Amino acid sequence: MTEKLLIPKLIHELLSVAEAPCISIYMTTHRSHPENIQDTIRYENLVKQVKESLIEKYPKTETLKLLERFETLASDDEFWNHTSDGLAVLGSPGLFEVIRLHVPVEEVVIVSDSFHIRPLRRILQSKDRYQVLALTLDSVHLYEGNRQSLSEIELPDDFPNSMVEALGKELTDKHSTVASYGGLGGDSKNMRHGHGGKKEEMDIDAERFFRVVADSVHERYSKHDALPLLLAALPEHHHLFHDVNKNPLVLAEGIEINPQAVSTDELAKLSWKIMEPVYSEKLDIMVGEFNQAKANGLGTDDIDEVIEAAKAGRVDTLYVEAHRVMASKLRNKDTGRFKTTDTTQPVLDDKLDDVGDLVAKMGGAVVIIPKEHMPTKTGVACVFRY
Fold first, then answer.
1. With 305 labelled, which of 65, 115, 168, 273 sits at a CA distance of 20 to 30 A?
2. Which of 231, 259, 261, 355 is nearest to 301 (CA)?
3. What is the C-alpha separation between 24 and 91, in angstroms, rounded?
4. What is the per-residue pLDDT for 105?
């Protein structure tokens, strides 16, 4: 089963799909037994809903063919035994994407002429996201979190998971095991014995290992996700890691702790304690940029003005209030015309969502901001390009 990373490029690919029907399934999943037993059953029920909807509008043969990949996923035991916190399954006649999500999502089934990407876009556009690299000499774990939770990212089989695995025969002769490094217990009193200012062989091995890990995380995750990265490691490992790190997204401040000795919940609390002021500073800067732009005639909080600017490709940045809904839907996402929707159908995209899609298509940025930090009361704030 090939899975896609949730990155901005994927959103643009999904927005460009024009061949209907487009099927969108979202659901919360569970990482462990026994909660995850029900995930497959719930997914199969959602696929049945899709089938019922398709049969009403499309020939049975076409419907069955379109659903083949959805049903194959339902029988993939290996996949369902390694789920994360959320799942998106999107399919059309020419496309099928499975995306593990690191946050729970509302259960949604939509069959339409375009994909329902709001949950994906809002995950990407939330500025509270970050990653944590939990590093010891014999283990590597990567997490993604926000202000509410922290979830582990499943690393690929070829990822360097320990110093022995990463360096193998390249380990120095005198230090071919990690037992003497204090990686588990945190006792590192033997880590340094200077000889004329030169590093011990164990420090050299550690630096080489950290370089491999830093480069791997940078290439495989940071370059795609563009998220701040916190290092959680023993105090003496922080400076060794920073000496070899070339990833600009690694924060100078990290968590000085043995990450194997704390729970994920505790790690989440320690991480957010560092990330919260970083997040608040980002929001303050964005609010200041909007206020300055509005004062200069290059910003607005009027939704109709935003729509017109979005159609003309004038929107540089659109700020949207988190969880705000405007009960209308674009009739044509290219022209910007709206039609009223049934507000009892929460699965339909709202006006803010569709305007966000239009802005993104035109190359503008869309940022989701919590209500308490929004600089306006209309649910929207916009900075124009010109």
1. 115
2. 355
3. 7
4. 87
